Every structure is written in structure tokens, then in C-alpha cells.
């Protein structure tokens, strides 16, 4: 089988250039991620999770049911129970004269 032809627009690197590339790859800290790249990675995860949460819970897909409807109904139920008083709490506030 014949070797693949090398395109003319990408000439073969000289042995000096090949050695330089190999040294760069073999340097111990060369392939390790930098602290800045780690911060960017964490930021991208945070933005992705935030946008996904917004789309699932708040984005407007019209009045029809969709795949997010059960999650949205559960979220609305939890939100309403958090921001409203239970019957026991209402009774206690009436006894204290605050309601």
C-alpha cells in the first residue's frame, strides 16, 4: 500500500521543528491545565446549569403540555407551599392576634 500523499499546503516539518514539538509535549507541566482554564471551566458549568434551570422552569413554550410540564408543576407546588402558611401556622397566628 502506498503512503498517503502530503498536501503541498502543509509541508513536512523539519527535524529541528519536530524536536521542538516533541520537547514541548514531553515537558511535565506543559499539558497540565492552567488555573485560568480551570476557572473558565467552572464558569462554563455554572452558566450551563443556570441556563438549563431557566429553560426547564421558566422559558415560555406556550400553553401546550411539553416534557417540562411535570417538573414545572412540581416546582410551582413547592414554591406555593414555601410562600404560603399552613393551616397550623394560620391557627397559631390567629391565636396570637397577628392575623
Summarize the structure in words.
The protein has 99 residues and is mostly helical. The protein has a domain at 67-99. Helix content is 61%, strand content 0%. The N and C termini lie far apart (90 Å). 0% of the residues are buried. The model has no long low-confidence stretch (mean pLDDT 89).
Question: What is the element layout, followed by pairings?
Answer:
Elements lengths: L14 H12 L8 H23 L11 H15 L3 H10 L3
Which features would summarize this protein structure in a list?
99 residues; mainly alpha; elongated
Classify the secondary structure makeup into a structural class. Answer: mainly alpha
The helical percent reads: 55-70%
The averaged pLDDT comes out at 89
The biggest beta sheet is recorded as:
none
Supply Rg.
30 Å
Tally of individual helices: 4
Shape, please? elongated
Number of strands: 0
Query: What is the N-to-C succession of helices and strands?
Result: HHHH
In the predicted model, the low-confidence regions spanning at least 5 consecutive residues are none
Instruction: Give the termini separation.
Output: 90 Å
Amount of beta strand: under 5%
Biased composition (Pro residues): 1-14
Region (Disordered): 1-34
Short description:
Residues 1-14 have a biased composition (Pro residues). Residues 1-34 are annotated as: Disordered. Helix content is 61%, strand content 0%.
Amino acid at each position: 500500500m502506498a503512503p498517503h500523499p502530503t498536501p503541498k499546503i502543509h509541508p513536512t516539518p523539519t527535524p529541528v521543528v519536530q524536536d521542538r514539538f516533541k520537547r514541548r509535549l514531553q515537558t511535565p507541566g506543559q499539558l497540565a491545565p492552567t488555573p485560568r482554564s480551570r476557572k473558565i471551566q467552572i464558569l462554563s458549568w455554572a452558566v450551563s446549569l443556570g441556563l438549563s434551570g431557566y429553560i426547564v422552569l421558566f422559558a415560555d413554550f406556550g400553553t401546550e403540555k411539553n416534557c417540562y410540564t411535570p417538573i414545572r408543576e412540581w416546582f410551582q407546588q413547592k414554591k406555593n407551599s414555601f410562600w404560603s402558611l399552613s393551616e397550623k401556622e394560620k391557627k397559631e397566628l390567629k391565636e396570637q392576634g397577628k392575623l
